[in-house]
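4.2 Preliminary Data

To establish feasibility before requesting continued support, the project team ran the inverse folding procedure on a target of 120 residues. The structure was first converted into the token representation described in Section 3, and no sequence information of any kind was made available to the design step. The complete token record follows.
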């Protein structure tokens, strides 16, 4: 004889809300803030070294600022000038002068390593 049993779990929504309310994400937010600022700084430093032609005004370098969203869990870093992609990737008339990608390649590894340390 087959007996059918029904299990009902009540209070799961309250449990999830309680656990979420107890999470402390401030160390993660601090890491995002730190590495966003460092990525911005490294990108600007790379630009200062790469953009040395007489026509360089520093406008692209000055436009690089970290923009935080999602309560500090997300940071966007990048220049806002329309012509930045031509500088970064080059054109058929101009060689590429990468500044953002090299900074990102270094900083992203440091960011990942620091997040891993938080989990230990």
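Position-by-position output of the design step:
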């Amino acid at each position: 004889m087959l007996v059918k049993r029904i299990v009902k779990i009540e209070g799961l929504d309250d449990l999830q809300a309680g656990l979420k309310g107890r999470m402390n994400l401030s160390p993660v937010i601090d890491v995002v803030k730190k590495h966003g600022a460092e990525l911005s700084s490294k990108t600007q430093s790379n630009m200062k070294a790469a953009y040395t032609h007489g026509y360089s005004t520093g406008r692209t370098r000055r436009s690089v600022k970290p923009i935080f969203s999602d309560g500090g869990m997300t940071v966007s870093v990048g220049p806002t000038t329309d012509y930045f992609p031509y500088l970064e990737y080059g054109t058929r008339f101009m060689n590429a002068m990468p500044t953002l990608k090299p900074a990102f390649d270094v900083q992203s590894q440091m960011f990942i390593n620091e997040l891993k340390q938080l989990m230990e």
